[in-house]
Each structure stands twice: as C-alpha cells, then as structure tokens.
Amino acid sequence: MKTAAEIGQVIKLNLGNLLGFEVVYRFLTLPLYLQVIDRGLKFALKASGYSYVTAANLAGFLLKPGTWLILAAVSFVGLFFLAVETGGLLTAFEGTVYLQKVLPYDMLVGGIQKTIGECRKGNWKIFLMLAGDYVLENLFLLYRVFSNVKPVNFVMQELFHTSFGVPALIVCGGILLAALFPGIFVCYFAMVEQKSFSDSWWNSRRLAKRAGKRVFGFLLAGNAALLAVMIGLYAITVTVSATAITLFVKRELQLAVLTGQAGRIELAVLMIYSMLNGILNLGIITVIYYQIQGEGLERKVWNFQGKLLDRGNQKKLLAAGAAFGMLSGFFIFDLVYNGSQTGSDAFLEVQITAHRGSSKAAPENTMAAVKAAVEELADFVELDVQESLDGILVLCHDSNLERLAGVSRKVTELTFDELSQIDVGSSFSNEFSGEGIPGLREVMEYAKGRISLNLELKNLGSHTSLPEKAVALIEELGMEEQCVISSVQMKYLERVKALNPDIRTGYIIAAAYGNYYTNENLDFISVRSSFATKELVKRAHEEGKAIHVWTVNSLWELEQMKQAGVDNIITDYPVRAREICFRKEATENLLEYLQMVFR
Fold it and tell me: Which of 132, 249, 417, 517 could cross-link with 543 by S-S, CB 3.0 to 4.6 Å?
C-alpha cells in the first residue's frame, strides 16, 4: 500500500504540468516527424523504383540498400524525439522526488540536456533500449495503428490466420521483455546519475533482481487498469458520437459518418493512452528506484543545473521553440490542406472514388456533383477533362453534348463562355436546372483541402496541349499531393511524367492483358472491375503499382473488390462503397440500436 500511495503522490504532484508537457511536445514534434516519414518514404520509393508499397513487394522494398539508409535516418530522428520526451518526464519525476513543481519548460530543458548528454557520452545503446521500451509499453497502440497500414496489415492478417502466428508473437514479445526488463532502470543511472551505458546496465540488473517482481506487478496492474479506462472512454465517446449522428445526420450517411468518426475517436483515445501510459510507467519505476536506493521521497532542496538555463540560453531556447512551433503549425496546415500522397495512396486501406462526381446525386462532371462527393465522404472524385475552343480546361465526358444537353455540338467547337451557358442539369432533374459545364480551375480551387482528384484526360489526339495544361494547373495551385492524372492515352501519361515525375499517373484499360504494370511512367492501373482478380492485383502490387477499378456499384461486386485487395474503388455510390469496405459490426449494431431508440 505504501508503494501505491507514493506512486500516486509522485504522479499527482506534477500531473498537470506533465500532461501540459506531453500535449505541447507531441503537438510540436508529431507533425514534423510525420513530414520526415512522408518525405523519407517518398524518397525511398523513388530510389527503389516502386510507386506503392504493397504486401507483395514489401520484402523487395525493404531489401533495397537505399531503403535501409533512409529508414535509418528516419528512425534516428524518431529516437531523438523519443529520448527528449523521456528525458523531460524523468526531469519532472526527479523534481517530484524533492517535492518540487516542475514546469513544462523545465521538462523540455531537462530532456534536451539529458539527450545531448547521452550523445556526448556515446551512450548510443540507450536509444535502442528506449525504442524497445516504447514498443513494449505501446503494443496495443502499435497493433491498432498497423492494423490500418495496408502492407503491414496484410502480413498481420496472414500471420494471425496461421496456427503458429499468435503463439509466435507471444514468444517474440516474451523474448523482448526478457531482454529489456533487466535494463528497466538504465535511464535513471545514465540520464540522472550520468553513468556510462555499461555501468548503467549492470546497476539496473542489480536493482531489477531485487525488485523485479514488484516492478512487474505494479506495471502490469497499472497498465491493465489504464487500458480498461481507455476502452471505457472509447465506448462512451463512440456512443455519444453515434447518438449525435443519429439525431443530426441524414440517415443514408449515418453509418459512413460513424465509421469514419469511430476511427478518429480511436486514434485520439490511443494518443491519450500513450501519453498517460508513459507518465504512469515512469512514475512507478521512479518510486521503486528511489525506494531501493534508500533515498526516500522527501528532500528539501533540488535545483536544475546546466548551461541551458542561464538567461541568454533561455531566450535562445524560447526563440527556437517559437520557430519550431510555427514550423509544426505549417506542417499541420500542409498535411490537412494539401494531403499526403504517400500516406493516403500507398499505405492506407482501399479508397473510394466518386465516379464523375457523385453522379447519382447530381449531374455528372458538375460542381454540384463534386460538392455531393465531398458530402458523401468520398476520398477521390474522378472527373473527365477536355479543352474548349479557346483552350480552357473544362469537365465533360462525352465529346458531343447531345446526351447531356440535347445540343449536337462538340465540346472542342465551343468557347468556355459558350459552354458555361449550356444547361447540363435539367436532363438530370429540375432541381439542377441551369447547372453549367464548369472549368477545371474552379473545381480544383473548391476541392483543394477537401477532396483528392482523379483527372481523366480525354483523348483529343496527339496535337492537343491537354497534358501540359493539366500539369501547369496542378503546379500553379500546389495540388501535386491531391491530384492524380489518368488516361487511355499512354502518350499523355508519358508527357505528364516528363514534365513532373512526382504527379501520379494511371493507365485506363478495359481489359487486363499484357505486362503493362512494369511501365515506369505508370503509378496505377485503372481497369474494369470484371478483370480485377486477386492474381492481377498481386502481379501489379509486386511491381509497386496500385489497382483502381471501375465502375463498381452492386453490393456483391463491392465485396468482391474488397476481397481482391484493390487499392481504389470508383463508384457511383460512394456512401454504399464506404459502408461495405469499412463497416464494423460493433458500430453497425450500435447505430441500428440508436436508430430504433430515436425513431
């Protein structure tokens, strides 16, 4: 009971400051680290010759020498951030032992001091130990995160379906725990007492032998209790969210909205769990460390020492922190507004593309259809791009306007002003009477930060400047991360790549014949869904290419495409597709129950 009370004491004394430090530190470092990961993966993909990482080519990607170098650099940045965070928490608990309040600023200073100190002493092994400890402490978090990363998720599913998969993971976890547990006090000896890693390791082993069972018991009980609280928090938050969705969201959108909302709630709860988990574990280890050392928890005097705390260095640190904060804020804005092509296309689950906009809710290839696709939670909107007589890029699928507007004129024979006056909405319904043909610029300006675009360049012959104009518009609006270009004309795609290799390109084919996935000018294949077999997907993935399928509308075909492992489903019914591809039984049952309650 005494140990439990002292654990509560050391955590409670600085809990507000600890949480403040964790929130601010992660807000500052996480966006920056996500950018490092994103840029590193892009560079690694380009160096390895792949457009996408899939389960089929994951091993080949990882075996490339350049990949290892880039992943090592990315890992080093992550380990440095982790070491500063750990050092900051240690600084707080070190002060708590002396019954002193420690401000978040002082935690940051202490974390930087301790991390730089370890680098100067050459204690590089401590960074690997911190990484191992982080994995053990955040197993559930990492499991849930990797469950949503496509290549790793596939490997995990295959592993869990084998008879030896789960036992093998348990054995590996046990080996990792056995290897790391003797070093549970290493950070205290290295970062607090300034010993070498070797001395810290042997001192930690000595203490672990004396109190290993006690430490393990408190850590196990504390983490189990925290996990139970977080699961309860998740359940309550999802229920409240589902209730609000049932009351305020259109019925046909409710399940799709709840599915996405549940994922965001889970991520937020897991981040809170990760922060509290680190505080709890270090609080437990701190108490037992000082108990074993016989130094008690009540000292009268404790001061920070170090050059970083003189007035001149304080100003420099504050200035650096402000600059760091602005940089992180910019990265957050960039990630939200411009998106991340590597993160969304190459590594996440199947994406949903609204065909010609949400063309069952509004007239195809119109601004209304694009807005409907955003409302219906599509990831992409597929649009048909042509050129007007005066060289303006416009949206229209057919070369002739007879079907859409009853006007027997070609798009290329009319100026943009003339096209914008033609009513293509009345044939859909009177509600959209007067809806005109939009220019691509207008649509892209609306879509920026809202939805990604698949721009299909229609075949206008070899003399058109359509590819060049599309690339120029994408670059002008800074939408390289939000736009892909597709076409039935391979020459168009080659011209796009020659102008900007970073813009993703897709070859549209009706039938899946030939070895087209090795073409270096292609990042994905857009194929009729009836040809998208598991074998086709596997072959394309082995070459680092993604598979987009069109036009998938029926329930059975959506299920079939999901099972085939395609990367993007082009559909006239984005809400239905999202429900099929992402539905979870728990959220589905909860929503059905709440719908019944509020009916």
Answer: 517
